[in-house]
Write a structure and sequence with these properties.
CATH topology of the domain at 1-214: Rossmann fold
Distance between the termini: 69 Å
Radius of gyration: 24 Å
Largest sheet: 9 strands, mixed
Strand content: 15-25%
CATH class of the domain at 1-214: Alpha Beta
Strand order of the largest sheet: 2-1-11-10-12-13-14-15-16
Helix content: 25-40%
Oligomer: single chain
Number of helices: 18
Number of strands: 26
């Protein structure tokens, strides 16, 4: 009997989306089975070592599902998966869905502290880890943590030796055992209203929260997007499958059979090689991923002409990046806005005007509603052109934060509106302009400054590759504008030069950085977002040091 207490949607809420035709009552594994039945011999997964047809993919995932049942993992159990983008991760997606378990991805960059924290918060029942990956011993790490994790019943080791005496299982052995006992699957009952996905907010501002999704919310959305994709689509996702963006990209293979080139680490050179070799047509990733591809020193040596579609998500994009993608591949990229809690809120489409593709994150997708409210009074809806908090209502809303009912209640109202904490505005045509997180707004002497506006301006400077702007504490003004920049080829750049550039662009004075810090690379979250918390901490340290050196020592 599963021990977890999960939240659920009300009957009225579920009926609303079913009646609207926006919930299709399909689970991930049922949708996958339909795909396999329609085209069993089509290649689905392409890895560095081998490829799998849809029928082979199903055989492996079925064996894994039966093997998991055989070691006591079943409906309602939380199974953490700390794997890179390996075929085994794909098998686990389907297998855990089939046995009614909840998948809990954990980033492979996380070590003892973060991994123990997430396993403890979720009271995870099992974890699947590589023996080693990138010269780090994940299995040994989990072994060291087990004494402090009493809820963790099972450790499963992929591509390495398991300690059977300690109750561990080897993933490939477990699959072989399951292959001989597929009859176990016949008794498992699941529904599309079951929770099956538990992941965490990226934590760019600290205190990540675990959000829960039911099959209906995500599978229905994916199935509606599939008809927009050409039948000859071949995909490659730069984002890790431990991140929501990368995780759900795999569902286009599961639910439509589009081949996925599975890449286990982000290496621009390797990805460019695979694009050329496999004739990839659809690329997805964060702005940082595409930045790395387009600026790779050997980019021009690769034939990437097969690329016809680009999906940028996970973090906000600069207009220059969107323009570069169009210039290089002739694509009108799908610039999206969403978060783990809502999946996709808005997106651009190829028919949108060029200016709006560069400058906006599009309009709401089917079934989704959008409004902008006053930050201090959420009952006041802001008119077009006025910045406020972005609010979401739609069929892809998460069911709640795991074990945090109070936090869940704080984000929504009785009418089903979710308050994102993000800032933006809409124009007269309904396109959303993303401004940034409410917590990132700089208050300079009472003037509210939105960092994204300055970041987009700075990225137009020919010497600047990336820019991130945060508030630096100031005794007189409260905060000053502090800009961190990464320059081309380590080019030196001065505050005066940046100020002159801002003047030439006729930017208002408050958009001029007052402190400029050149760094070699931006601190990034595991999901490819610039880690503003790290930069804000650095800005605080710099301000403290500046005051200490400026103030004379007190008389003794």
């Amino acid at each position: 009997m599963a021990k977890h207490s999960f939240p659920s949607f009300s009957d009225a809420y579920r009926k609303r989306w079913r009646d609207a035709g926006l919930w299709l009552d399909v689970t991930l594994h049922h949708g996958f089975d339909q795909t396999v039945a329609a085209q069993p011999d089509k290649v689905a997964l392409i890895t560095a070592d081998q490829s799998y047809t849809l029928a082979q993919y199903k055989a492996e995932s079925d064996a894994l599902a039966a093997g998991l049942l055989g070691v006591g993992i079943g409906p309602g159990d939380i199974v953490a998966v700390q794997l890179p983008n390996w075929a085994e991760f794909c098998f686990l997606q389907i297998a855990l869905s089939r046995i009614g378990a909840v998948i809990q991805p954990i980033h492979t960059v996380f070590r003892e502290r973060e991994t123990a924290n997430l396993l403890s918060l979720c009271e995870s029942d099992a974890i699947v880890v590589p023996d080693t990956y990138k010269d780090f011993g994940f299995a040994d790490m989990v072994r060291s943590l087990r004494p402090q994790l009493p809820a963790l019943r099972k450790v499963i080791v992929a591509r390495g030796e398991a300690h059977a005496a300690a109750g561990e299982s080897n993933l490939s052995d477990l699959m072989e055992e399951g292959r001989r006992n597929l009859q176990r699957l016949a008794d498992v009952k699941t529904t599309a209203d079951d929770i099956y996905y538990l992941n965490f907010t990226s934590g760019t501002e600290g205190n990540p929260k675990g959000f829960l999704h039911v099959h209906n919310a995500v599978i229905s959305m994916t199935k509606r997007l599939i008809p927009l994709m050409p039948p000859e689509t071949v995909m490659l996702a730069c984002s890790p499958m431990t991140h929501t963006f990368g995780h759900f990209e795999m569902y286009y293979t599961d639910l439509a059979g589009f081949p996925m080139v599975v890449v286990d680490r982000y290496s621009p050179g390797e990805i460019l090689t695979l694009i050329e070799r496999e004739r990839v047509t659809k690329l997805s990733g964060t702005p940082a991923h595409f930045f790395g591809l387009l600026h790779h020193r050997d980019f021009a040596k690769f034939d990437t002409s097969s690329v016809k579609s680009v999906a940028v998500g996970g973090a906000r994009s600069s207009p220059d990046l969107i323009a570069d993608l169009g210039r290089v591949w002739g694509v009108k990229s799908a610039n999206t806005y969403g978060m783990g809690e809502t999946i996709i809120h808005t997106r651009t489409v190829p028919d949108d005007p060029e200016e709006r593709i560069r400058s906006t994150v599009g309009r709401p997708i089917f079934g989704v509603e959008l409004k902008i409210v006053d930050q201090k009074d959420r009952t006041v809806v802001q008119p077009a052109g006025t910045i406020g908090e972005i609010c979401f209502r739609g069929p892809t809303l998460f069911v709640g934060y795991h074990n945090l009912p109070g936090k869940t209640a704080d984000t929504r109202d009785a009418n089903g509106w979710f308050y994102t904490g993000d800032l933006g505005y809409v124009d007269e045509a309904g396109y959303l302009y993303f401004v940034g997180r409410a917590k990132e707004v700089i208050n300079r002497g009472g003037t509210k400054i939105h960092p994204k506006e300055i970041e987009d301006l700075l990225c137009q400077h020919p010497a600047i590759l990336q820019a991130a702007v945060v508030g630096m504490p100031d005794e007189r003004l409260g905060e000053r504008v502090c800009a961190y920049v990464v320059t081309r080829d380590g080019h030196e750049i001065s505050l005066e030069e940046v100020g002159q550039f801002c003047c030439e662009r006729k930017a208002t004075k408050y958009l001029h950085p007052e402190v400029l810090v050149r760094i070699e690379e931006m601190p990034m979250t595991p999901t490819g977002k610039i880690q503003k918390v790290a930069l804000q901490k650095d800005a605080v340290s710099r301000a403290t040091l500046s005051r200490a050196t400026a103030d004379p020592a007190p008389a003794g």
